[in-house]
Design a protein that fits this description.
heterodimer, A: alpha+beta, three-stranded mixed β-sheet, B: 221 residues, alpha/beta, 8 strands, 36% helix, globular
């Protein structure tokens, strides 16, 4: 349900970084999403498909790496992957620390630098539409 | 060209949430989250009536389209600001920042934010509150903490509401309490009824203590 908002936030952050790197077209985005966030990969893909047309992300590939929820027990030292959020070691019942599963970040993106365009021209779909004819 | 970011997705939201927190200073700020119909507004109405003699209270009402909840709160004579998310299923920090423009935070001791009724998305978004308080009603069934754990993990207090319905349901309060504590051992669970008032004294006592502590803190601390 909040997948649209998450993808929108990712696109804003990446667009900013793309502009700083003089990139006018994104070809790939990689997100890392812990299972504790309850963001479903299918819904993230759908949101990406809906939000990207007519932007610098048009046609880009979205890769999502899911991260399991993992506990580390201070008593028995065991690390366990759990299917649901809990704070108790499944092996010995001690209060355990959640060490993975809450990740929610942009790992990297890939894009094409625009030759012959300066930084100010590299600011989104309008810029893409203004490409010099010789570039096509 | 590959650009490695390794950057939190909600960084922008977290930045605004930090600014909100600074702006709110000594005001105890409580973000109420629950499913639709769990009783957030009813609990707020009771709470305002009980505490408004001792504390200056403000309310920010999040709703997708309507102003019905804000109208219910306004009759209690406290400052209310309505945020309509026009479709969005949760409040985010920048919506709160805009609402704070409309409210004199210097003149408040406690600010309640009633989030959009939704047990999933509001858990993800820090608004700049001190505490999230989750409301779970008996009528929703005992399986909600297991099905929507993130909100219960984020909550400092869980109010199990509609306790007046317990005689008519198979909701096992102790089992649910244990389930919530398994997800979040630090949370406090109060069993209440906004209809009869049962159990609310313990919630008021928690709020008073939290408000006194926050109000006495230095603005920079």
């Amino acid at each position: 349900m909040h997948e649209l908002g998450l993808i929108q936030a990712a696109m804003e952050e990446i667009a900013r970084a793309a502009q700083a790197n003089n990139i006018c077209r994104i070809v790939k985005v990689k997100l890392v999403v812990g299972k504790m966030n309850g963001a479903l990969p299918d819904a993230l893909q759908f949101a990406f498909k809906v939000l990207t047309p007519e932007t610098i992300f048009e046609g880009a590939d979205l890769e999502i790496e899911e991260v399991d929820i993992r506990l580390r027990c201070p008593a028995c030292g065991r690390e366990t992957v759990v299917g649901e959020i809990t704070c108790w070691c499944p092996a010995c019942g001690t209060r355990a620390e959640i060490v993975a599963g809450r990740e929610l970040y942009i790992e990297y993106f890939e894009g094409d630098e625009e030759e012959g365009l300066n930084n100010e021209g590299c600011d989104g779909p309008e810029a893409a539409a203004r490409q010099p004819a010789g570039g096509a | 060209m590959k650009v490695v970011m390794a950057q939190k997705l909600l960084r922008a939201n977290q930045q605004v949430a930090r600014e909100n927190r600074t702006r709110l200073g000594r005001v105890l700020t409580v973000n109420l989250v629950s499913s639709p119909g769990a009783g957030k507004t009813a609990i707020l109405e009771r709470t305002i009536a009980a505490l408004k003699g001792a504390f200056r209270i403000g309310v920010i009402e999040g709703d997708i389209y309507t102003t019905r909840d804000a109208e219910r709160i306004a009759v209690h004579g406290v400052d209310v600001v309505q945020i309509n998310t026009t479709g969005l299923c949760h409040l985010d920090a920048s919506m709160l920042a805009r609402a704070l423009e409309e409210i004199d935070t210097e003149a408040l001791d406690i600010l309640f934010i009633e989030n959009v009724g939704n047990l999933v998305c509001p858990a993800e978004f820090d608004l700049g509150e001190d505490y999230k308080v989750a409301v779970l009603s008996v009528a929703e069934g005992a399986d909600k903490p297991a099905k929507y754990p993130l909100v219960f993990q984020e909550a400092r207090v869980v109010l199990i509401n509609k306790a007046d319905l317990l005689p008519y349901s198979d909701f096992d309060v102790e089992a649910v309490r244990q389930e919530i504590l398994a997800i979040n051992p630090e949370t406090e669970v109060f069993v209440v009824s906004a209809k009869t008032g049962e159990g609310l004294e313990a919630w008021y006592a928690w709020l008073k203590s939290a408000a006194q502590k926050k109000n006495a803190s230095s603005a920079t601390g």
